[in-house]
Design goal:
By secondary structure, the chain is an alpha+beta fold. The chain has 16 helices and twelve strands. The structure holds adenosine monophosphate (AMP) and magnesium ion.
């Protein structure tokens, strides 16, 4: 059933990782399995055997051809450099070639204590595993590059965090697990050869259009390409009200996929200063800071690439800096493109920026639900009836002033109201992983062994743009007593 492994990372120089087999668990039970993703990855599901799948996705048996390993990486955590992090509880089984010919990593998260575990127990609690499963799959369904969730297994063992919780293992799929922190690990050790290996691997796997480039230009172009992809990614987050929560450099993927869904959350009432994570006391990763944290993270990547760009790294500072200085414009263009499509605008007009800003200001002032505002705007484009939309705002004055400006701007579009509304509905989700619904699913699973709540939520989120009759409750913001103000890494 398991597709053949390629073992790309396992064949890199041995000091880039440590060979490490997952540690067996007592009583594994498969609680989620992503069949569409399995098919995309080349699994033969006609030969599907749940007992066998449970053995593999728990780490109790190593699938044929895999050579599990823990990757070395470093990272800036909340601005502080930690020279040695690494996979403290994750193992990479290997890579498989998916149906599109793309190499994908298959990783077990929560698979036991590796040489990188430091004080940790190498395990993952069920709650965070299910959260990552739900949110990463929802991000994918909403068109945001993200790692994927292939399976979740409970271990039959307890893990101890704030309270004891059931233990679990997540099978995560990524275009690769190369991080900014992977480069930082070797840069901190002055290992230019390892950096070259990693940079060449990044180009091969994620930026093959650069593969014919040679010399220092090749690595400068890599930096530029990662910068562009990360700018596009964070613009998408901003367009959905997504707050990652731990944008440390070890959680910043070179592929441009959203990586690590710890204390992440979606904003409801719009406020650019929103922070959920209990560990982000300084609000470093607040919603509105995210684009600038991305720039900061890519600057850290740039530092690691200097010795590949020029023999004398000093000489590389100027071109690398010039490239990073272009970020605000690149990000602004990506973000404006996202916001234009959210407002149903295909043409580009100079005044669009001011139009978007005015809407956000009205939303902030009116404490309007981020997701529903854009969704209701689609209805407003079609019906010219604004009352449902306006009811989302506590102080409706500003939105009432704004709507005529938007309608006037829409007259410049080629399409009519119905066509504009339908394209708006294809980018503005009705269903997002609302924090209280995610919480409800995690509690049901951890406390009552009820996985149905989790499964139903996942099903709703797999069609985020399509209205699903009978599922109105999934579209609603949290009632006062349901609100989630803090999220926990729980790792
Ligand atoms: P994260 O906050 O999940 O991005 O992890 C940051 C670092 O802590 C990584 O090096 C992880 O491997 C490590 N880590 C997180 N949780 C554990 C755990 N339970 N046991 C060992 N290492 C962990
Ligand atoms: Mg991480």
């Amino acid at each position: 059933m398991f597709p053949d492994f390629t073992l790309r990372y396992a064949r890199l120089p041995a000091h880039l990782f440590t060979r490490f087999d997952p540690e067996p668990v007592t009583a594994p039970r498969l609680v989620a399995f992503n069949r569409p993703l399995a098919e995309e990855l080349g699994f033969d599901l006609t030969a599907y055997d749940e007992a066998e799948a449970t053995q593999w996705f728990s780490g109790n048996r190593v699938p044929p051809g895999a050579e599990p390993l823990a990757q070395a990486y470093a990272g800036h955590q909340f601005g502080n450099f930690v020279p040695r992090l690494g996979d403290g509880r994750a193992v990479l089984l290997g890579e498989v070639t998916d149906r599109h010919g793309q190499l994908r990593d298959i990783q077990l998260k929560g698979a036991g204590c590796t040489p990188f575990s430091r004080g940790g127990d190498g395990r993952a609690p069920l709650g965070p595993v299910l959260r990552e499963y739900l949110v990463s799959e929802a991000m994918h369904a909403m068109g945001v590059p993200a790692t994927r969730a292939l399976a979740a297994v409970t271990t039959g063992e307890r893990v101890f965090r704030r309270t004891p919780e059931p233990g679990a293992v997540l099978t995560r799929v990524a275009k690769s697990h190369l991080r900014v922190g992977t480069f930082q690990y070797f840069a901190a050790r002055g290992d230019t050869e390892a950096l070259r290996v990693l940079a060449d691997l990044a180009i091969e796997r994620h930026y093959p259009h650069l593969s014919s480039m040679t010399g220092g230009e090749r690595y400068l172009a890599l930096l530029e390409a990662v910068l562009a992809r990360q700018a596009a990614l964070v613009a998408k987050w901003m367009g959905l009200g997504f707050i990652h929560g731990v944008m440390n450099t070890d959680n910043t993927a070179i592929s441009g996929e959203t990586l690590d869904f710890g204390p992440c959350a979606f904003m409801e009432a719009y406020d650019p200063r929103t922070v959920f994570s209990s560990v982000d006391a300084g609000a470093r990763y607040a919603y509105a800071n995210q684009p600038w944290m991305t720039q900061w993270n890519i600057a850290r990547l740039g530092e690691t690439l200097l010795p590949l760009i020029e023999k004398n790294p000093e000489h590389a500072i100027e071109p690398a800096t010039a490239l990073l200085e272009a970020y605000p414009d690149i990000y602004e263009a990506e973000w404006l493109a996202v916001m234009r499509t959210k407002l149903g605008l295909e043409r580009e007009e100079t005044r669009d920026r001011a139009l978007v800003d005015a809407l956000l200001e009205a939303m902030h002032h009116g404490r309007a639900d981020f997701t529903l505002t854009f969704r209701q705007l689609a209805d407003a484009a079609e019906t010219e009836d604004d009352e449902v939309l306006v009811a989302l705002f506590e102080n409706p004055g500003a939105i009432r002033d704004w709507l005529p400006r938007w309608r006037e701007r829409l007259t410049l579009e080629q399409a009519g109201g119905a066509a504009i509304a339908s394209r708006m509905r294809s980018v503005n989700p009705l269903y997002i992983p609302r924090n209280h619904k995610v919480e409800e699913a995690l509690v049901a699973a951890a406390e009552r062994d009820d996985f149905g709540t989790f499964a139903t939520l996942g099903e709703v989120l797999s069609q985020p743009f399509t209205e699903q009759p009978g599922r109105e409750a999934y579209a609603r913001p949290a009632a006062l007593d349901e609100r989630v103000f803090r999220t926990f890494c729980g790792t």
